[in-house]
Amino acid sequence: MITGYAIAVAACAAGVAIWAFVLVVLHREPEKPLLMGVGALEALLAVQVVISVVMLIGGGEPGSMLTFLAYLVGSLLVLPLGTVWALAERTRSSTAILGILCLTVPVLLLRMVEVWGGASA
Amino acid sequence: MGPVPDRPATSSRTPADRPATASGPGRVLIAVYAIFAVAATSRAAVQIATRFDEAPVPYALSAFAAVVYVLATFALARTGPTWWRVALVSCSVEMTGVLVVGTLSVFDRAAFPDATVWSNFGMGYLFIPLVLPVIGLLWLRRTRPA
Asked: What stretches pass through the bilayer (chain B) (predicted)?
C-alpha cells in the first residue's frame, strides 16, 4: 500500500459522503453527478487494489495476509453492492445510503494501512 | 430534480398504512446492518480460523454477534409479520448482547483480551453497535404489523 494514496482516496470518499449528506438535507434523490462521484471513488479504490497487489507480489508482508486480502476484496465490493441496494427504491434515503457507503471507505483504508503496517487483525 | 418525498407515492405500504421495514428510511437502517453483518462475520471468521485457542469465549461471542447481525439484516429486508417478529427478536438479542458484553468487558477486561464488536459497548466501532439496536427497535415499533 502507498499510505499517501490511501489518505488521498479516504479524503475523496469523505468529500463524496459530505456531498451526499448535503443532498439528503436538500431532500434530493440520487442524481447523476453524485453517482458519477461514487463511480470515480470506485475507480480510485480499484487503483488502490492494483497498487497493493503489485506491492504484495513484490514482497510486501502485511501483519495478516488473510485479513488484508479480505479488506482488499471488501473495498472493491462495498460501493457497487451498496449502490444496487440504494437505487432499488429511489428516494431521499437512497442518497443517505450512498453517503454511508462512502463513509465505510476511509474506515476500510485505515484498517488496511494498519494491517499493511504489521497489525495482525 | 426537485425535492422528493421520503417514500415513493406507489410505496409498498401495508394495508394498515404502516411502512414496510425495507421501505424509505428503513433501507438506510438495513444498509448499516448489512455493513455490520459483513464486518462482524469477516472478523469472527478470521479470529476463529487463525487463533480460536487464544480466546474461545470472545471469539465464539464474535461469531454469535455476526449471526445476530446477519439475521437482523435479512429479517428487516423482508416483508410480512413473521419476518417482522424475527427482526424484533434479532434486534432485542442484539440490544441485550451489546449491553451484557459491553458491561462484562468493562468490568472484567481479562475475560476479553481481544475486541468483539460489542466490547466496551462498541466503542471500537464508534458506539454504532449500541445505537443500532435502539434505532432498529424504534423502526420496528413504527412498522409494527396491524
From this structure: 28-46, 58-77, 84-107, 119-140
- Is the pLDDT at B15 greater than 70? The verdict is no
Other CB atoms within 10 A of residue A66 CB? 15
Q: For residue B77, give the chain A residue with the closest CA.
A: A85
Residue A91 contacts B where some CB pair is shorter than 8 Å: yes
Alpha carbon distances (Å) from B111 to B62, B72, B87, B101? 13, 27, 30, 10
- For chain A, what percent of residues have pLDDT higher than 90? 95
- Find, among A108, A106, A116, A6, the residue nearest to A65 by Cα: A116
Helix ranges (DSSP H) in B24-117: 25-51, 56-77, 81-107
Domain count, chain B: 1
**Which of A65, A93, A104 is the mutation pick for testing B, counting most B CBs within 10 A?**
A93
- Identify residue A118 by its one-letter amino acid code: G
Distance (Å, rounded) from C-alpha B12 to C-alpha A109? 37
Cell 415499533, residue located: B141
Q: Domain range for residue B116?
A: 25-142
From the list B4, B43, B46, which residue is nearest A92 (CB)? B4
Q: Residue A81: enclosing H or E segment and its boundaries?
A: helix A65-87
Asked whether the ipTM of the predicted complex exceeds the cut of 0.90, the reply is yes
A contacts of B35 (beta carbons < 8 Å): 78, 100, 104
- Rounded to an integer, the average pLDDT of A4-13 is 98
Cα–Cα distances (Å) from A121 to A98, B9, B117, in that order, read: 27, 46, 13
